[in-house]
Design a protein that fits this description.
With about 700 residues, this protein is α/β, with parallel strands linked by helices. The C terminus is likely disordered. Helix content is about 45%, strand content about 15%. The chain contains 27 helices and 19 strands. This is Dipeptidyl peptidase 3.
Length: about 700
């Protein structure tokens, strides 16, 4: 029997992101600025297809061609005429493709597209069921013949050349018995003499540890050209000099493949305080790189929600008072907290593999430590993403379900604020720069866990991502989540968000209850065959659940049971009377350990701690492998979002909105690229074909 984990129901939740009022209030110039930034984000977002799996781009093109010719309603009629029931219409894709107008018009092309992706689309071979490196899964950040040792060697090479991995992919082949690696930079141009060799992007051929490395440009070149062209158009409508300089540097980054240019653009972005239209774009989050160093393309455009932003501004102004409350010595905190922007935004465009509830960026450690960062909370995402129906709430008792539904939204708003601002925004990294200078008093600072002097730190070009690699993303999310749990106990924090007295205690209770329930739900994202986690945040929440279960004294209880339907079930409960004592103490101790290990670049200690709590087994007081099966059996499919489009009409911009349904979602995508659909699709297939000479990780049976 095929694992139900890999099935999605036909009635999956789909919601429209409402930004009508926010967009209407923009001036014509601001609307044009938002439009061209959105176009840039959407074109760049197509690179995610090439960063995910060998078949992703072909699947996208197949569906675009299918629905460009006939919208869902027409295809439904075609399916009915072909004898397919409504259920079969949604499930029998091949029959639908063969009956479609797109197939009738171009049968050989559509059949070739189907053949290029259909086997992998439906494959449930172990390696093809999840993202991973080597034998653990599929990734296109690396060619399929790369393993962890190749990733580690490439990181050493990149460090030696002072190159970031954020906008790269790695391809390996053999030549004359020697391993040869191509580090491919994302850029619109393929050559640029002034930046090659020992210039800004180090393009060229190098011998390194008896291997050959070639640094080249041109990955996603057609897409990066579109990104840069639209950034240049947006620049004509920028509100100030910081925005203009920011867009110039971003454009230079995507044109030439320079992360240094993107960092420079990020510096101008930080200086652009309180813009009406907020945005960020680039190779940002490294969650889906199995090695944790390469960024997935992401671009968002959003409009400030002034009322909600006032609360976050109050939190920012209290940050310097709240930071000393965190459970590590002051030497482990930044020398100076740079007050960031913290705004609530209504998303107009978010291009990438998913939409988060909040963001803390940029991710460049050197900028965050010394120059600052920004925080955003995505208000219209929060409004629809976390709405919950009581009958779909799993693993809680009936009394908890009522209070959970009432207070989940307000409690999550508090958690997001603390997680982004004081979670990701806190903590110091101990660094010795290339000149040998330390940013801490080496002779005086002691490790609070051991009482001994600091013996490890970050050296030269080492970063948090490059040192902690495969665990860096989840570890940092866990640290930020713990900060949120810890500081939400502070009455001043709760009052900032308008919560006092009994209401404040309900917010605390539901925030902690939501975290332990999320830890249990996180088991959905653990793959038992490869003993690996597929989602950084959910791994982090499972770790926190383990920490709070370990605290004992009845703080958290987790019991297996049988549901009313006769199937395996579970019940998780939290003793609210022990949150401020047992719970606070457990998080305080764990959070201090996380920060000390991070500050001191203690990779060995950090891995031992984090991988220990991340382990999923059938031993101990809880059979988590068995509980995983229960979670999978009762999981709810992740909600999908429909986003609006914009189009220029004369001197103004029109907002085109769609219903929150599968039809609305499909139409939003076909219309998004309608003006140059054939060109975009041809470029995608060409880019995908370039990777074909390199092993993709497919087995012989699946080719």
């Amino acid at each position: 029997m095929v694992d139900s984990q890999y099935y999605l129901p036909n009635d999956i939740g789909i919601s429209a992101l409402d930004c009508t009022e926010a967009f209407r209030l923009l001036s014509p110039r601001e609307q044009l600025y938002a439009h061209y930034l959105s176009r840039s984000a959407w074109y760049g977002g197509l690179a995610v297809l090439l960063q995910t799996s060998p078949e992703s781009a072909s699947i996208f093109v197949l569906l675009q061609r299918l629905f460009r010719k006939q919208p869902p309603a027409q295809l439904g009629n075609v399916a009915t005429a072909a004898g397919l029931s409504p259920e079969e219409y949604q499930e029998n894709l091949k029959a639908l493709v063969w009956q479609s107008q797109a197939f009738q018009d171009s049968p050989s092309e559509m059949e070739a597209l189907w053949d290029s992706c259909s086997t992998l689309l439906y494959s449930l071979e172990d390696k093809q069921k999840q993202l991973g490196l080597g034998d653990k899964g599929i990734t296109t950040y690396f060619s399929g013949n790369c393993c962890l040792e190749d990733a580690e060697l490439a990181q050493k090479f990149l460090d030696s050349k002072n190159l970031s991995a954020y906008n790269t992919r790695l391809f390996k082949k053999k030549s004359e018995g020697k391993s040869c690696y191509e580090v491919r930079l994302a850029s619109a141009v393929c050559t640029h003499p002034s930046l090659d060799g020992e210039g800004e992007t180090r393009c060229g051929r190098y011998n390194f540890e008896d291997r050959v490395f070639t640094v080249s440009r041109g990955d996603y070149d057609h897409l990066m050209k579109k990104v840069s062209e639209n950034l240049e158009k947006a620049k004509d409508h920028a509100a100030n000099e910081n925005q203009k300089r920011m867009l110039e540097e971003y454009s230079r980054s995507f044109t030439f493949g320079s992360v240094e240019a993107h960092k420079e653009g990020s510096r101008f972005w930080i200086k652009d305080k309180g813009p009406i239209v907020e945005s960020y774009i680039g190779f940002i989050e490294s969650y889906r790189d199995p090695f944790g160093s390469r960024g997935e393309f992401e671009g968002f455009v959003a409009v400030v929600n002034k009322a909600m932003s006032e609360r976050f501004a109050k939190l920012v102004s209290s940050a310097e008072v709240l930071l000393p409350e965190l459970p590590w010595p002051k030497d482990f905190e930044k020398d100076r907290f740079l007050l960031p922007d913290f705004t609530s935004l209504d998303v107009l465009t978010f291009a990438g593999s998913g939409i988060p509830a909040g963001i803390n960026i940029p991710n460049y450690d050197d900028i965050r430590q010394s120059e600052g960062f920004k925080n955003v909370s995505l208000g219209n995402v929060l409004a629809v993403a976390y709405a919950t129906q009581k009958d779909k709430l799993t693993f809680l008792d009936e009394e908890d379900k009522d209070v959970y539904i009432k207070w989940k939204g307000p409690s999550f708003e508090v958690q997001v604020g603390l997680h982004e601002l004081l979670g990701h925004g806190s903590g110091k990294l101990f660094v010795q720069d290339e000149k040998g200078t330390f940013n801490f008093e080496q002779d005086n600072v002691c490790n609070p866990e051991t009482g001994e002097k600091i013996t490890t730190w970050y050296k030269g070009n080492e970063t948090w991502d490059s040192k902690f690699s495969t665990i860096s993303c989840s570890y940092e999310e866990c640290r930020a989540e713990c900060v949120g749990l810890y500081l939400c106990l502070n009455k001043h924090v709760l009052s900032i968000f308008g919560h006092e007295g009994e209401d404040a205690e309900e917010v605390v209770y539901v925030n902690w209850l939501n975290m332990v329930r999320a830890g249990l739900l996180g088991l959905e994202f653990y793959t038992s065959e490869s003993k690996s986690w597929r989602q950084a945040h959910m791994q982090a929440r499972f770790v926190i659940l383990r920490v709070l279960l370990e605290a004992g004294e009845g703080l958290v209880t987790l019991k297996e049971s049988t549901g009313k339907d006769g199937c395996p079930d579970a019940l998780i409960t939290l003793d609210r009377s022990k949150i401020h004592t047992v719970g606070k103490g457990a998080i305080e101790r764990f959070l201090c350990k996380l920060q000390v290990l991070k500050s001191t670049a203690d990779v060995e200690g950090g891995r031992a701690l984090y991988e220990g709590y991340s382990a999923v087994s059938d031993g101990g007081s809880h059979n988590f492998l068995c509980l995983r099966e229960t979670v999978l059996q009762r999981k709810e499919a992740r909600k999908m979002f429909v986003q609006a489009n914009t189009r220029v009409k004369g001197d103004s911009v029109e907002l085109v909105e769609y219903e929150g349904s599968a039809t609305g979602l499909i139409c939003s995508f076909t219309e998004r690229f309608a003006d140059d659909a054939e060109e975009v699709e041809a470029h995608l297939l060409e880019l995908n074909k370039r990777d074909a000479p390199f092993p993709s990780g497919r087995t012989l049976e699946s080719v």
